[in-house]
Amino acid sequence: MSSDGAGFADADLGGGGPGSEDGSGMGPGNEGPGSEEAARAICLRLLTAGPRTRAQLATALRKRRVPDEVAESVLSRFTEVGLIDDAAFARAWVESRHHGRGLARRALSAELRQRGIPDGEVRSAVGLLGPQDELATARRLVARRLPASRGKPTPARARQLMGMLARKGYSAGLAAQVVREALEQEQESDADHGADLAWISEDGAGDDWL
User: Fold this and answer.
1) Is 145 exposed, middle or buried (0-12, 13-18, 19+ CB in 10 A)?
2) Are residues 75 and 9 located together in one domain of the fold?
3) How many structural domains comprise the chain?
4) SS3 130
5) The domain spanning residue 41 has which CATH number?
6) Same domain for 5 and 77
7) Which pTM was predicted?
8) How confident is the model at residue 34 (pLDDT cuts 50, 70, 90)?
């Protein structure tokens, strides 16, 4: 699994229409496009390509016009035998996207819900990350971006860095804290204590930093 979550399936789960080679499940051994055999073939093909949630597979079957009762039967069986595991998907997603992309719990929760993960599983998965994990990751993100912003006015640098953290799901308060700390440390190392950075706060940068 790649660090940025590319090992997960985000492609169009609908695939081709009935009779296509890329996911219809039709073939000499199938009973028909709406049969359990065809539905199993569709799910297995998609799961072979990458992890999927139950909701994603249900959407794929619906696009292939598999009857709801057939889809439910196949998906339930796949869940029973462990081929579908939303809890494991959510945990792996959080691990991959937090460490690979630096996403915070808020952004991770939104991504998991978009993929049909139930709220309880979402909370359990993002709960694996604590406040200190988010703080440490936010500091790494800012430290990585800070050198490239040298030479720009301090307010512009602060807004840019806080905006980057906001887009990754970090709260305004944490973003302000981390950016202010980073700029203060930079000033100390440069023996430049002229700029007052106290204005960098949760609401001190204004609405235009998002």
Assistant:
1) middle
2) yes
3) 3
4) coil
5) 1.10.10
6) yes
7) 0.75
8) confident
